[in-house]
Amino acid sequence: MTAIRKEAIEMLERMPEDKLSFVIQIMRGVNGLIGTTDTTTKRVINLDQFIMPATERGQNADAYIRELRDNDRV
């Protein structure tokens, strides 16, 4: 075991339990940076499910905003 690894383990052993979740998050972030991510499968999300269908009101939104702006100047 290298001296750096030994020091890191000793620091983790001294770390309060409630702070360990932050350390784990940081370590996961570093793993992502160096390209050694977990090989777990990622869930594919269909982004089309979040698109709302166009309504008549939505299609006329530009004209509606323009009308509000014009009426505000009166």
What does this structure look like?
This protein has 74 residues and is mainly α. The N and C termini lie far apart (78 Å). The mean pLDDT is 79. Helix content is 58%, strand content 0%. The radius of gyration is 26 Å and the shape is elongated.
Brief digest:
With 74 residues, this protein is mostly helical.
What is the helix content? 55-70%
Overall, the morphology is: elongated
The string of secondary-structure elements, in order, is HHHH
Helix count, per DSSP? 4
Radius of gyration: 26 Å
The chain-level structural class is mainly alpha
Report the average pLDDT across residues.
Answer: 79
First and last CA, distance: 78 Å
Give start-end ranges of low-pLDDT stretches.
none
Number of strands: 0
> Largest sheet at a glance?
none
Give the percentage of residues in beta strands: under 5%
List keywords for this structure.
mainly alpha; 58% helix; 74 residues
Produce the secondary structure layout.
Blueprint: H1 3-14, H2 20-34, H3 56-59, H4 61-72
